[in-house]
Structure formats: C-alpha cells, structure tokens
Amino acid sequence: MKLLHFTLMCLVAWATSGCSSAIDAAKKIGQVIMDPSIQVGKDTDQPSTLRLTLLAEPNINPNSANQPSPINLQVIYLTEDSMLQATYYDQLQETELKDILGKNYLDHQDYTLVPAQYKPLPEITLDEKNQYLGLIAYYSNPEISEWKQVIKLNGTGGHRYHVLAQVKKQHLIIKVEKE
C-alpha cells in the first residue's frame, strides 16, 4: 500500500511540475482560437507583407502624336529574377509570361493606368517562396523605354514592404521601404 501511495505521489508531483508551461500553452492556443490574428512564433518565422502603390506621371507613354496615353502593367511575383532579366520585349508579345519565366514564376497581376493616376493596392501576404517582385510596363515605344524593373524581397522574415512603382514618361522607378 505504501508503494502505491508513493507511486501516486510521484505521479502527481511529476504531472504538476510542468503544469505552468502546459497551462501557458493552453492559454495561448485559446487566445489564437479566439483571435486568429495573434502572432504564433518568432517574427523571423512570419510571412512578409507587401503594400504596393502604382503612380503614373501625367506624361506617360506618349503615342505617335506625342500625347500621353494609358499603359498596361504587369506586377510579377518570382522565386528568382534571371529569367525576367533575360526577357526581351518582343518575347512578351509572342509567349505567355508564365511560359517565359518557367519555374521562377509564382503569380502576376495585370493593371492599366491612365496618365496621372494614383493607385494604392491592398496589402498582401507574400508566399514563402517569393524572393523578387518584377514590373513590366508595355510602352508604345519600347525601343527607347526602360520597360522592366525587378527588386529583391524576402517572402519570410516578417518584413513589411512598402513599394512605390512610378511609371514615368519612358521608364519605371521602384522605391522600397522595409520595416
């Protein structure tokens, strides 16, 4: 009987010795269930976010009469940038973007901007594989235009990227702020 009592006491002592961490874990799980926006894990393990703003200058994409005209843009999410950097303009007219970029391609969005347009886009959570953001502007005269730009990102690490993509008369500028 004494052995049973001793074993029972040892079991109770062992079970209660780790209780505070088990209780803390249960509390955290309950909090996350009640509010899924609560962070779980370290900042470095969190996905990064991107807030992109598109800004078109008043004199963008001059047509044959030298009048500003709307421009089509593609915002491209990539795992690696070399395929986009090696792309030439005519290739984009002949082949789908996804086929050109192959395994480096994650996703893209199409936009059309009119001269002097300001377009803030909703914040998005980046895929963990996302390492680059590319931008292609379909200028009416691509031979004299700088029509593509690429910036480095990190899909994980909990970074908050604020990106301004400026569409100028004949070129693109991308400015990045990272928190």
Automatic annotation (TrEMBL):
Keywords, alphabetical: Signal
A UniProt-annotated Pfam family: T6SS-SciN
InterPro entries the UniProt entry points to: T6SS_SciN, Type_VI_SciN-like_sf
Domain of life where this protein originates: Bacteria
Signal peptide segment: 1-22
UniProt keyword Signal, yes or no: yes
UniProt xrefs under PANTHER family: LIPOPROTEIN (PTHR37625:SF5), OUTER MEMBRANE LIPOPROTEIN-RELATED (PTHR37625)
Protein name (Swiss-Prot/TrEMBL): Type VI secretion system lipoprotein TssJ
